Amino acid sequence: MQNSQAKDQPNNNKRLPKVVVIGAGMTGILLVIKLREAGITNITIFEKADRLGGTWRENTYPGAACDVPSYLYSYSFELNPNWSHIYAHGDEIQNYFERIGKKYQVTETIHFNEEVTDAIYRDKLWHIKTSKNRHYQADFVISATGILHHPKLPSISGIDCFKGKSFHTARWDHQFKIDASTRIGVIGNGSTAAQAIPELINGGASVKVFQRTPQWILPNFDFKISEKRKQKLQDDPALLMRYRRWGKFLLEQFFTKAVTGQWLQKKVLEMGCQLNLLLSVKSSILRKKLTPNYQVGCKRIIFNQTYYKAIQTSNAELVTDSIEKINSQGIITRNPENKFQQHDVDLIVYATGFDAFKFMRPINLIGKNGISIEQAWSQEIKLYRSMFMPEFPNFFLMLGPNTPIGNYSVIAMSEVQTDYLIQLIKKWQFGEFNQIEPKPSAVKAFNEMVKQGLKSTAWVGGCQSWYLDAQGDPILWPYDWQRWVDEMKTPDMEDFNCE
Fold first, then answer.
1. Per-residue confidence (pLDDT) for residue 1, from 0 to 100
2. How far is CA 271 from CA 159, 278, 279, in A?
3. Cα separation of 366 and 364, whole Å?
4. Which residues pair with 112 in a beta bridge?
5. How far, in Å, CA of 277 to CA of 196, rounded?
6. Which pLDDT does position 2 carry in this prediction?
7. Which helix (DSSP H) or strand (DSSP E) does residue 27 occupy?
8. Which of 90, 286, 386, 391 has the greatest number of beta carbons closer than 10 A?
9. For 221-274, what is the HEC assignment?
């Protein structure tokens, strides 16, 4: 066995828990830092890859950037005055997390290239097995695997028949040379595609974009931050904090409220998207193809100022006919008159997103009485406060269903959830419980409250998106940000079964 199998000895009547963290992305790094600050130091963190970083390690496609203003996309205790743009680029976000990992001595404690394969609860402990056939024990397991780490490929006939090059945007092959002679087919047109497609087009390649559903787009008004401005922010931390507060105010009071049903903000957002399309696209025929038939906000709004311009260039083509299949030479489409067309390409890029409902899977997660996660979620995925599952004691899922992921910074969400779970672990330390799990009645009440709020949101506006579960219900938080923060300030112990 790795790690000590015996319980840590109490210190002044305060127990010292063994904690396992799965995943060394943004949330995993945060957890280690905050747990240590709380005096919880027996932490084992596993990362399946060879570096930390999560989403920003995986996504290195051309144009990768955050769609949350950069001054908001950082830990509250480690603001960064050196972002190069208003919307930080992927490589510098990765560098930021690597710097924080080193500064707080998180990196040296991570078990890299070691994936958790099994987590089984028995005898009041979690028993962990990894891909290196090592075994560990823990009092608490925290899943910080995130939601954007299982690339999703489309179910298109013949996908394996293509003789050219193909890859998902999260598995970008930088060794493959793209130049003006390269014929590219991009399948998908969400946030990732809107960033990557202009880069490919502007590089001179011939690009066909295969669009199933158009997207609403708002300009992000991104611009480069001057060295003089960076220096000013370094010299004046109060100014940097003001920038952060302004961004926070904009997200809280406008975008969050717009998609959760506030009439005024919703109308302003709709007008902004419609006006952006009208002013950006000259051709009425192309504009019609780019106009969604669902309400603004139903899918995640794309913040981008390069896509509309790029799709109108001579080396770009928007294809709206449905994809029939893929063959050795490229992509075959079928138009409404059932006429087929062959699109020969050298490269197929799948900008088709991720399986957002995998969460910690494919880990073999077994709770009390031998219940597996597959059995627990066989009908629907329901948790309490997005983090807790009945029959899985002392297990926390970070950024789970009904976290406000659709309209805010995930770093801020993880900070709120981390503070919440540390309060619970402290109660364990002082002997208030040994095992904790949510009452089924609390899970039911929480999900009914969420479902009631969803009725007035934009996410039920007639579209198909990764926000929706198998039952067609959005997995987001339907109320404003401040309500979520207030409800997450202190655990309500009446909602838990504690042994």
1. 42
2. 39, 10, 12
3. 6
4. none
5. 19
6. 44
7. helix 26-37
8. 386
9. CCCECCHHHHHHHHHCHHHHHHHHHHHHHHHHHHHHHHHCCCHHHHHHHHHHHH
Q: What is the pLDDT of residues 396-439, one digit of tens each?
A: 999 999 998 766 789 999 999 999 999 999 999 999 999 999 99
Side-chain-side CA neighbours of 160 within 13 Å: the count stands at: 0
Tokens of 369: 């009485």
Residues contacting 180, CB < 8 A, separation 6+: 203, 204, 205
Q: What phi and psi values does residue 332 have, to the nearest 5 degrees?
A: -110, 125
- Confirm if 304 and 194 have CB atoms less than 8 A apart: yes
Distances (CA, A) of 67 to 1, 237, 284, 403, 410: 44, 23, 28, 18, 11
Residue listed under structure tokens 């950006």: 280
| 256, amino acid identity | T
Q: Are strands 496-498 and 436-438 parallel, antiparallel or unpaired?
A: antiparallel
User: Quick one: residue 69, left, alpha or beta (phi over 0 = left, psi -120 to 50 = alpha)?
Assistant: beta
pTM above 0.90, yes or no: yes
Q: Please state the three-class secondary structure of 182-235 as a single string.
A: CEEEEECCCHHHHHHHHHHHHCCCEEEEECCCCCCEECCCCCECCHHHHHHHHH
Sign of CA dihedral 118, 421, 389, 407: negative
Dist CA 382 CA 160 (whole Å): 35
CB atoms < 10 A from the CB of 467, how many? 20
User: What is the token pair recorded at 103?
Assistant: 């500064």
For every residue of 400-414, DSSP letters joined together read -TTSSGGGS-HHHHH
Pairing of strands 135-138, 125-130: antiparallel
Burial of 285 (0-12, 13-18, 19+ CB in 10 A): exposed
As averages over each run of 10 residues, the pLDDT of the chain (499 residues) reads 42 85 97 98 97 95 94 95 95 98 97 98 97 98 88 94 97 96 96 97 97 94 94 95 91 87 92 97 97 90 95 98 97 96 98 86 94 91 94 96 82 97 97 96 95 86 71 82 95 95
Tokens of 42: 């027996």
DSSP letters for 371-394: -BHHHHTSS----BTTTB-TT-TT
